[in-house]
Amino acid sequence: MSDLVLTRQQESVLEIVLNRPEKRNAMNMELLRELDTAVTQANRTPGLRAVIIRGEGKAFSAGIDVSALLGLAQTYGPHWQQRMRAITDEFQGIFTRLERLELPTIALLHGYCLGLALELALACDLRIAAAGTQLGLPETRLGIIPDVGGTTRLTRVVGPARAKELIFTGRHIDAEWAERWGIVNYVVPVEELASKGHALAAEITQAAPLAVGMAKRVIDGLADVDRGLQLEGWAQSQLLSSADFMEGAQSFMMKRAPQWQGK
Asked: Fewer CB atoms inside 10 Å of the end CB: C or N, the chain?
């Protein structure tokens, strides 16, 4: 791996660090593939009991790298829709493998946790946020939807009505709001974020590992995530060929209000 994702093991706890701070850890294909490699290696590392995922710098992650997304659209032209469906499938696979990791996972959020970043956090078992962290799924403001588990996993966490409110509006919410809705387990001062995460991981490692893994499998098995991911992929493939998506992405890059056409 290069240095877009770092791993650091402290006794039985592995830290996976998103390391693109100059871009607020905005996610491109290379970063996500490195994340996938780190998760796969964690599953094969003997003695590990928990995984912490965090972001380097001023944010957990600002979400997907929109400039890279636009570059793909321009590169593939009329084949853009088919290419993006393949990319969506790959991203979904990466987050599903994270979710199904046998080890318990804790996401430590600070600064921004938006779009694809929140979808990543929702694929983790537990989430701790620093006070003032901004969370949200703003995809509808780009003319698309959260398609890497955002609609499915958020609904599982907060229920349909709150999921619809957050996704329909595309609004950002703060960490305290997210805690009230159950999106995060704890809110702490930013200077206590790492210590809180490691304290929680240490507490988990005191329980029987086989029992923790089995409990995770049973709890996660209560929701039909696979069906939700299929629906997300289908809907997104329709939206990515729309004029509204191109307008949303271009207006975001140009920092202007979008002019929606509904087509």
From this structure: C
